[in-house]
Amino acid sequence: MPIITQIKMYHEQGMSIKNEVTAKSNTIKNNSDKSAKQYNLFDNIIGYEDIKKLFYMSFESLKPIHILLVGPPASAKTLFMLGCMKLERSYFTLGTHSTKSGMVDYLFEKRPRYLVIDEIEHMPIRDQTVLLSLMETGIIAETKHMKTRNTQLKTWVFATTNDTNHMLTPLLSRFMVLHFKQYNFENFLDISIHMLGQEGIAKDIATEVASQVWHKMKSKDIRDCIKIAHLAKTKADVNWIVETLQRYSKNSNLTDKNNNLSR
Fold it and tell me: Domain ranges in the chain?
């Protein structure tokens, strides 16, 4: 099959999924305002229409279908989790803070419908075991101070991880696993302009910020763009802020020179 024909087919397939998602969104919006909120969750994410559709299908499934997004930092994983946090009866936790923030206590007391976990690979084994039981049977149980408590929930779990090496294999098998690739510059630029535009940042400033963050700071983190864009009023401001951040970065030679001059 000629290359041009293949490209055309892939493009048409992508547009078909996007149109289907849009049509489904409009149908839900016409049915109820409460449901409409679910279908505006990912408006700040450019592309990934097929993954958005999978999430929508999961929301509507009669039984919980759990989704795990795997990939490097700055690959849109967290944006999906931020979207899921807007769901009614959702609870968000970081894997590193799951015990400190009382995830198990929250499950017992609030009985969330959606559990959203960022960086699940850092979750202690004890909490991973609780999560495994929740996802497999809907039952959670805990013994504390010689007392045992248990309950049964119907909870969807959505999570992210940079890698799966520190996750229990049985827990991993309970997820629908999707692997993300890191942004290239074109993706990074488009997403930065889109997200910063939603926050009232002019396109020319957003473009300059994205270019400087990617090329000068060697960062692929959209959050760096957001921080700089809210400080800068002009392109000159963007350049000055980036140079200042570089000057005082951990590995900057300029910082060492300034320290020597002050002695």
Answer: 63-179, 185-251
